[in-house]
Amino acid sequence: MTTVRLPLFPLNSVLFPGLVLPLNVFEERYRAMLRDLLKTPEDEPRRFAVVAIRDGHEVAPSAPGMPDPTALPARGPAAGFGPDPLRAFHGVGCVADAATIREQSDGTFEVLATGTTRVRLLSVDASGPYLTAELEELAEEPGDDAGALAEDVLRSFRRYQKRLAGARERSLSSGAELPDDPGVVSYLVAAAMVHDTPTKQRLLQAPDTASRLRDELRLLRAETSIIRSLPSLPAFELTRTPTSLN
Q: How does 99-118 read in b/e, with b if 16+ C-beta sit within 10 Å?
């Protein structure tokens, strides 16, 4: 088992390998993390782990009154995540490689990172200025019939794109090139589909590529059928996502 210890960046969303993650960082705990990452030599990867929040808040309350008018603002690396941060996060996340870290004049940071490798969360350490985690790297196994499943998923995804564009009254480029590698297809489609965090998390932690593709094929067919009969799409994320100062 290959383990690694990395800074931890919890989000109210799921990061998949190969996907780009832009961040605007203003909380002190994450600014401290990025200042330390900037000390890494430029020829070495500046890595941190992204995990989806199961229970907690991406941004700690910044002042009394959010939501309890008598409460003092939460502070510290584990603020907003309870006494045991490990229980606040989903168990599988993704390593992010920060290609660009820019500090702004006001001390905030703009970051552009890319997901690389899936990892399982083993433990969380809140003793420093920001959370760190011990992580187990997860291999991506192809599974049975991944190639044929990827072709089916791409066909269904094209139909889904067209239906989604119609439901949102906008157009999508039908000439865009999509990959043919089953693993890449599985992550791209998982990220692109309109689904809530628990569904995307389930896709991230699928045991192999073929299992993820089978799940996506079922979801795409169901969603395409639903969109066909709806005049517009419900904004489910407005009711399921905590308000963020971002």
A: eebeeeeeeebebebbbbbb
CA dihedral 185, 190, 194, 195 (to 10 degrees): 160
Q: Which residues contact 51 (CB under 8 A, 6 or more apart)?
A: 8, 9, 10, 11, 89, 90, 92, 93, 121, 133
pLDDT > 90 fraction of the chain, expressed in percent and rounded: 64
Query: C-alpha dihedral over 204, 184, 241, 229, to 10 degrees?
Result: -110
Q: What is the pLDDT of residue 177?
A: 67
Give tens-digit pLDDT for 150-176: 999 999 999 888 877 665 444 444 445
Q: Are strands 47-52 and 3-11 parallel, antiparallel or unpaired?
A: parallel
